[in-house]
Amino acid sequence: MKNRAWFFQGDQGEFALEQPERNTGLYFPLVNEAGMMSAITPNLHGQVTSGHNTFLTEPVSVMDLHNSKASRNFWVYIQGEGAWSVSGNSPRQQSELYAEEKEASFVEAGFLWHKVTREHRTNGLKAETINFVPMTGDKVELMKVTLTNQGAELLTLIPTGAIPIYGRSADDLRDHRHVTSLLHRLFVSEFGLEVQPALSFDERGHRVNKVTYSVLGAEASGRAPIGLFPETESFIGEGGALDWPESVVANAQPTAVAGDQLEGYEAIGAIRFNTVKLEPGQSVAYVMAMLITDDRLDVSRIAADYLSEQAFNTLLEQNQSYWQEKLGTLAFNSGDESHDLWMKWVTLQPVLRRLYGNSFLPYHDYGRGGRGWRDLWQDCLALMVMEPEEVRDLLLNNYAGVRIDGSNATIIGSKPGEFVADRNNIPRVWMDHGAWPLLTTLLYIHQSGDVELLLQPQTYFRDLFVKRCKDRDASWTPEQGNKLLTRDGQIYEGSLLEHILLQNMTTFFHVGEHGNILLEGADWNDGLDMAAKRGESVAFTAFYASNLLEISELLLALQARGQETIEIAEEMMVLFDTITDEAVSYDRISEKRSLLDRYYERVVPSISGKKVSLNISEAATDLKRKAAWLTDHLRRNEWIHNQEGHEWFNGYYNNDGERVEGDHPEGVRMTLTGQVFPVMGGIATDDQVGRIVRAVDRYLKDANIGYRLNSRFGGIQQNLGRAFGFAFGHKENGAMFSHMTVMYANALYKRGFVKEGYEVLNSIYTLSRDFEKSRMYPGVPEYINEKGRGMYTYLTGSASWLLLTQLTEVFGVKGHYGDLVLEPKLVASQFDASGRAAVETLFAGVLLKVSYINKNNADYGDYKIGSVTLNREAVHYEGAEGRVSIARSLLASLPAGQGHEIEVVLV
């Protein structure tokens, strides 16, 4: 093997890998906005689906990728030699996997297409297979196989495309797998096979089904195939298998032609094409389409749109242009071209998460589709940079999921702003959920200057559960709908600011016996789910503390724009305790909990609908007092000194009310999460940040897998969470969890610990790029396990945070109430040989290229901003040293539809 790792080709992020089948678990996403979601491997395995209940191919987990024999196979029967698979999916080819002489194979991929090239070991036949999901309104995946005779002799070939059709819900994989095949109705058309089950059997009930699953094929010219093998059992033959089917191996004649219908069998789109004679140097191509439709096909329309080489090539070109344009709104140029191209794949990941949710890729086999509450807000971080025109409406819609008690819906519908009651009426509250919306909204306000968004009205979510899901309201019925009503039956709306206040202020009073916010069902770390009664999240107490301070500053920003008062629901006044006659001592846990109970009683089962006017200055002062109390509390009570002389913040209390972190008989216990939010939110002093860095390096940094999420706790910790049932070094128990590692870097950059932050970010890139260990394509994984393998690729919120950190902290391109702020925090190695580093991004509706010129090759801390030009003309700016601000009005006046360059000279 010449290359044991993937390598970039060109400057558009395309990459290649030789002998890709030598790597377990590799897969690649193919997707479109219409709802087609595919995954494909180097041997064309994977899955094709449009949702949990509509899988065209069999649902697969990552283990199935190398254990299952099903795939998008394409066979060639070579006269005089026998059967050969263009994807290597045959026992004969797989037996040569570790041989000295093996078939040459190669995978290439770009945005978003996948190509596998394979060469027959003896006769010179080369197969090139390209797959992609076109950007049309159809749920369709296309596949083109090109066969080329590179040998010296004539080859006589009989091609057969063979793609198994599962055609039902993922729930049927084990539950009634055979019975549901009896529902299948198979219709043979001129170009292939349609499967339309008569009924759907799943948790939704037995319903008449119209959804149709199809596999069609044609020659390059659009010429139809000669026949089909539609039944799996007949295609493979008695004793046969999908990787060695009798119909191909014995070169059998097709069993079905257009117009045939069958019932009650497992189906396969096994399409037999005409015999072809290939002279040396000649090529022949075939196009196959996999479709999921709401009803039977208009086959003639599908054939015209997709089933020719000309149509395939045109759609592929359109697909490539679509993704390049979408991803072209953010690009980095530094001293490391490989890193810049790697970041292009990270840029894709938030878009993939919007389209896939957290499901429908092989590692993400636990989901049923959609996203969680936290995902809604964190994915918006990257969309704010890449698809800013959509963000305002997304934010506004998302707030409709907030309950009047400060909690929120946890099941997210497929449409924007659609929320449904908790699945199976299982009440659960993640205590961190209320913290994220403000962070995302604040970023939007700073990027756009749209402070008025805070005053936009929105409804509240309502269901059976009340008082943060601690109680049920027997008076509520589903017929009332999922919107909060006033006592006179009207739908209630409050401003987004009111929603934000509720989420953060109710949580402030929801504390445990040590004065920190109760952990409840879990926080960001879903694995800490067994300390609902006495567990406390010190980490997110720090997050909420910084939020309260941020909200007070937002209020003052509104005031500076002429707003003297805000309107809130009258029931909320009790939460502003310092400006009412219901003030409580924040040192007394019972008083804080009692105040919260009084609020709950006022909003259950409904609210009056009346609003009160609140003075902004008084409200801001109340919030600052709350933030100050939390900050002082955390610094005084949660700062740890251990026997080795290291210091850091405790992150949690368990369900026995015990502090989790610090010295322990089984070793020092420490969490990264417990350090990130005190650093990011300004709870930790500058001196404490330095001490935290040293403690993290001592107890969490590992040369092999980077910064661990936690040290080894020992035991399964049933008083804290399921995470500790995982083996140490895997997932939420001590792996390098990219999300929190990136947030740690972000926090360090925010606090001016730039070199330390760069080391953290660079470790993620280095680990992901080390293919010998990570075994993953370009991008950032959810986590790196104990062996250094990248796990749960593509769908991770860490991608949004990595993009945000790279843009706003490393390159220092960010907004401040709509104005552009430039505050570079680049280290010397991030400039190219000419001393230049640049980023292209959208801001104020125009595409900007911000270039930093560092001719002295100075390191961070040794340079300051000397001059700023816009399109080569000096520009007025405010600021000094390492930070400048450019008025939004100047940028907004620039012509749209063309690029503009800001050049910053560092001296």
TrEMBL record:
Keyword Glycosyltransferase recorded: yes
Keywords: Glycosyltransferase, Transferase
Gene3D superfamilies per UniProt: 1.50.10.10, Glycoside hydrolase, family 65, N-terminal domain
Location of the Glycosyl hydrolase 94 supersandwich domain: 105-307
Domain Glycosyl hydrolase 94 catalytic: 618-810
Database matches in InterPro entries: 6-hairpin_glycosidase_sf (IPR008928), 6hp_glycosidase-like_sf (IPR012341), Gal_mutarotase_sf_dom (IPR011013), GH65_N (IPR037018), GH94_catalytic (IPR033432), GH94_Enzymes (IPR052047), Glyco_hydrolase_94_b-supersand (IPR010383)
Taxonomy, superkingdom: Bacteria
One Gene Ontology term from the biological process aspect of the record: carbohydrate metabolic process
Keyword Nucleus: no
GO molecular function: carbohydrate binding; glycosyltransferase activity
PANTHER family per record: CELLOBIONIC ACID PHOSPHORYLASE, CELLOBIONIC ACID PHOSPHORYLASE-RELATED
Name this polypeptide is given: Cellobiose phosphorylase
Annotated source species: Paenibacillus apis
Species classification: Bacteria, Bacillati, Bacillota, Bacilli, Bacillales
